[in-house]
């Protein structure tokens, strides 16, 4: 059983190396380099070198943080457009969204989008942290949360280092 698995594994490796070789030969020929016979180690070395070159070239275009911020902005804008369409579609229904509430919501979403457009990308932070999107969106606190936090602040003693 093991020799058969080993043969299949080697066959997969060789297929992938052959595919890499074809890709690398065409990529290197496009760059004007002449490549004749390549051994497995040569294929891997050329691939690694080529990937490093691509990474260096692409890093000048757009940093990952900026790409995340751009994707977030695009998603947020799309979501705001969906909300706008939904509000507009409920006008003719038996239970439309209150016009004042809808207008206020759309105004808020618009101001969030404008803030995102004027806020520079934040410094690198863990993915999913609010700061990674320029800090543009912070969920509003409800009046109940504000009252609870005031009561807790009054009840708990404040630690001071001195």
UniProtKB/TrEMBL annotation:
Q: From the UniProt record, which GO molecular function terms apply? A: protein dimerization activity; sequence-specific double-stranded DNA binding
Q: Which UniProt keywords apply?
A: DNA-binding, Nucleus, Transcription, Transcription regulation
Q: Domain named Orange: which ranges?
A: 72-109
Q: What Pfam families does this protein's entry cite?
A: Hairy_orange (PF07527), HLH (PF00010)
Q: What is its main location?
A: nucleus
A Gene Ontology cellular-component term: nucleus
Q: Which GO terms describe its biological process?
A: regulation of DNA-templated transcription
Which SMART domains does the UniProt entry name for this protein? HLH, ORANGE
Report if keyword Cell inner membrane is assigned.
no
| Cell location | Nucleus
BHLH domain: residues covered: 1-54
> What Gene3D superfamilies does this protein map onto?
6.10.250.980, Helix-loop-helix DNA-binding domain (4.10.280.10)
Which segments carry the region annotation Disordered?
117-162
Q: What is this protein called?
A: Uncharacterized protein
The organism that produces this protein has a lineage beginning with:
Eukaryota, Metazoa, Ecdysozoa, Arthropoda, Hexapoda
